[in-house]
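Quick question, first post here. What does this chain look like in 3D?
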Amino acid sequence: MARVLFARIGWMEYYAGPQEGDQAPIGGGAYNEDNLGHEAFNFDHKHATMRAYFEPPSSLNLRKIDPNAQPNDAYIDNSIIFFFAKRPEGGQVVVGWYNQARLFKDEQENDYAGRQNYGFYCEAEKHNVFLLPASKRNLLVPGGTKGAPGRSNIFYLYDEYGNHRLAQWISDILTFINGYQGNSITEFRSQEITETLAADIEPEVRKGSGQGFLNNQEVKKKVELHAMKKAAEYFASLGYEIEDVSSQKPYDLRCTRNNNEELRVEVKGTQTEGKRIFLTKNEVAHARDDETNVALFILHSISVFDRNGKPVATRGIQEVQNPWSIDEDSLVAMSYTYDLA
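> Answer (accepted):
Ran it through. C-alpha cells below.
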C-alpha cells in the first residue's frame, strides 16, 4: 500500500513566496492570521530538491504512514504527501502533491536562501512535485465526517493499530494522480504565464478574430463549459461514449466506440470568430503524437448574456478537424519564461 499523508495548509496561487496578488496563505491556522505561513514556499522551485512545510500537532507518527516504520527512524522515503486547503469560495481541495518524497519525523532546518529560515518536513525532486492551477483544484477532501480529516492539519491513512482507513475519496484522489498528465512544477509557471499573457492581449486578439482569454474568469468558464457540452453532444451523435478528462489529461474528451476505437478531442470555445486559438505546450505535444487519433472541436462566435447577474453562454458555430494534424507553419511562439537563480 502506498505511503500517503494528507496535510492541510493555507490557500495560495503559487506558494512561491510573497508576491503581488499572492502575498501570504489564506487560512490554514491561527498562525497565518498575523504571520507569513511557512507553507508560502512549498512550491518554490528554485532548487532541484524542493522542500515543504506543514504544521503537525507534534512529531510525525511515521508508523501511521508506514506500519513497518521503526521507532528510531528519522524519516521514510517513497511517500506521497497531498497538500489540501480551503478554497476562498468554500470547500477544501487538493492543491498539489510531492511524489517519491522523503517525510521527516521532526522539523528540519532549511538553509535555502530567501526562505527566511523556515523549516521543512518533506522534500522531493522537483520533477516529482505537482501544483494544480487554481482553476483545476477540484479534488475534494471531505471534512467533519468519519474517515476524513478533522480539526488536525494532518490526516494519516493508518490508525495507531496499523489498520488502514478505507475511504472512497482517498481512492478517487490516488486514481486521479496515477492518470495525471499535467505539468510538474518545472512547467507550471510557464503554463500560467502563457494564459496570463493571453489575457493581457485579449482586446487585440478580439480585433484580429482570435480566440481570446477572457479576463472575467466566470465568463471564461461558462464559455468553456458550453463548448465542452456541444463537443460531447457532437461526438455522442457519432456513436461515441464520452469521458471528460480535461482535469488530468492534455486533451479534453476521450471518445470510444466499437470496444477498441479511441478518439481524443481538444475542445476550444470562444466568443470571437475563431480564426486563432491558443495552445499550451502539452496540447501541442499531444496533437503531434502520431500514435493517437486526435480531433479538434472549435465552437466560436459564442453569445454571452447576463441573467440575474450571472453570465450565460449560448449558441456558437462549430468547426471540427478530424483527424487534427498540427500545421507547423501555423504555430506562432508567444512567449518564453526564464527562471532566475
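The CA atoms of residues 264 and 292 lie 8 Å apart.
The chain is about 20% helix and 25% strand.
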